[in-house]
Structures are given as structure tokens and as C-alpha cells.
Specification:
Layout (H helix, E strand, L loop, with lengths): L3 E11 L8 E5 L4 E5 L7 H16 L7 E6 L10 H9 L2 E7 L5 E2 L9 H13 L12 E4 L2 E4 L38 H10 L3 H9 L15 H17 L2 H11 L1
Parallel strand pairs: 1-4
Antiparallel strand pairs: 1-2, 2-3, 3-5, 4-5, 6-7, 7-8
Helix pairs in contact: 1-5, 3-4, 5-6
């Protein structure tokens, strides 16, 4: 599914509960979006993780707000009085990532909400695949909107890629931190959903998802000759991790037990 490319027209308000201080912005299609800034502390790697993991989630038919590519003009900083926000906008001029804003959504509460076993198992499986360290009771990164659960904020997934040299030899490693997953207690169907989840991610789908990561986010000190080489490494890693998924699936089943 091709990511739409739009532009920010107006900065609306910061979301200060996020570590990277995302913001609600109005775009040129008149919609409201949550903008993730390329110039935030986590840098473009967080946007790469958002784009890849978010794309995989949508391919797996998990509930996600729409992801878009969003141009940001540094001129928007002129209308903001907060120097910190001004600096963030200026540092992020160019191409960023945003998600559809869900007005009135509330944070997922594991005490009040009890997702069904099938959905919980699929989300836990997905987060184990993408090594998402940030879906805990302390920070679930899920919203409830119109009675439905939505996944948000995957910037902390694919954490292996920080300082990565393209080595995929560790792709089949289990993911022990799955023990802290907020939905693990309900994920009683991990073994049952495994084959179907893997079937939804053939190599062609993985390549399509990774292909949509912009060149501008793949520049840096990593040991890659060019963005195309880096994309190929992501594809190789994910394909191998999927082929060797028994390690992370069994780790999640053991953690739940």
C-alpha cells in the first residue's frame, strides 16, 4: 500500500507526553495528523522504524491509523512562540512521517480493557517480529477509538538498526523483552496464529513496505554504500527473521507460561 505524500499547513499543538514531542498538525488535505519529527532526539531511525513496522502492521491487518509522508516547511516555526518547538520544526524541515489523528481517542488501559485472545496474540507476535520494546503496561502505545483498539508509535521497534552494519546473522534471535508486553496475559493463541501471520508477509510484501522508506531517512554514518543497499539489508533481515520465527514465537509462549 503506497504511502500518501502530503504537506503540513499549520502547527496545531504539541503532544508533550511523547518523548520525541510529536505534534498535531493540519495538512493540505484539511485533515489533522500526529507528526513525528525527523529532527527529534531519536533522529530519522525512529521514522524508518515507524514506516517499516507500521507498514508490516497494516499488511497483517492489524488496526493502525493511516501513515503518511509529510513535508514540513521551516517557515512554520515563525508562528510558534516556544523556542524549543521552533528549533524542532527548523531541524525537521523536509520530509517527515505522520499518522492520522484520532480525535477523542483514549489511552489503552489494561485494567479497563480486555482484548480478545486472537487479537492479543497477533499483536504480541507482531511486536516480537519487530523487536518492539515499547508496548508495556507503563507505556502501551495503544489507543481506544470508537470502541476499537489501535496501535501507534513504533519508533522504538527494530532497535537492532541503531549503529547497524547490515549483519543479519542475529535475525533469528528470540526477543526476551516480550515478557513485558502489556497484552501477553491475553495472548493464548500464539501457536495458532503463527502460520497465518507469516503467510501474510511474503517476501514481496516486505520488499514493498521497505521500498517506501525515503532516501532522506537512510543517510548517515551507518556502514552502507547507499540507501538501496540499506533497504536490501532491512529486507534480508526481516525475511530471515520470519523464516526463523520459531525462536521468537516459542520465547513468547514460554514468557506467557
Amino acid at each position: 500500500m503506497q504511502l500518501r505524500h502530503i504537506a503540513a499547513n499549520r502547527y496545531v499543538t504539541p503532544l508533550r507526553e511523547g518523548g520525541s514531542m510529536p505534534a498535531v498538525v493540519e495538512a493540505d488535505d484539511q485533515g489533522l495528523y500526529v507528526l513525528k519529527f525527523r529532527g527529534a532526539g531519536q533522529g530519522p531511525k525512529a521514522l524508518v522504524a515507524e514506516a517499516i513496522s507500521g507498514g508490516l502492521a497494516r499488511a497483517l491487518d492489524l488496526p493502525m491509523p493511516e501513515i503518511v509522508l509529510m513535508d514540513l516547511d521551516a517557515e512554520l516555526a515563525r508562528t510558534e512562540g516556544d523556542p524549543e518547538i521552533q528549533d524542532l520544526i527548523k531541524a525537521s524541515a523536509g520530509l517527515n512521517l505522520a499518522m492520522d489523528y484520532l480525535p477523542g481517542a483514549i489511552n489503552f488501559d489494561p485494567v479497563a480493557e480486555q482484548p480478545d485472545a486472537d487479537l492479543a496474540s497477533r499483536i504480541v507476535w507482531f511486536d516480537a517480529l519487530t523487536s518492539n520494546v515499547d508496548r508495556t503496561a507503563r507505556n502501551p502505545n495503544m489507543l481506544i477509538w470508537h470502541g476499537r483498539l489501535y496501535l501507534i508509535d513504533h519508533g522504538a521497534s527494530l532497535y537492532f538498526h541503531h549503529g547497524w552494519d547490515g549483519d543479519i546473522s542475529q535475525a533469528g534471535k528470540p526477543f526476551p523483552l516480550i515478557r513485558d508486553h502489556v497484552l501477553l496475559r491475553w495472548a493464548s493463541r500464539l501457536a495458532e496464529v503463527d502460520a497465518d501471520m507469516a503467510r501474510r508477509l511474503p517476501d514481496a510484501v516486505i520488499r514493498d513496505v521497505v521500498a517506501q522508506v525515503p532516501d532522506a531517512w537512510l543517510q548517515g554514518p551507518d556502514a552502507f554504500a547507499d540507501p538501496a543497499t540499506q533497504r536490501a539489508a532491512y529486507v534480508d533481515y526481516l525475511v530471515r527473521r520470519l523464516a526463523q520465527r520459531e525462536g521468537f514465537v516459542q520465547e513468547a509462549i514460554r514468557a506467557r507460561a
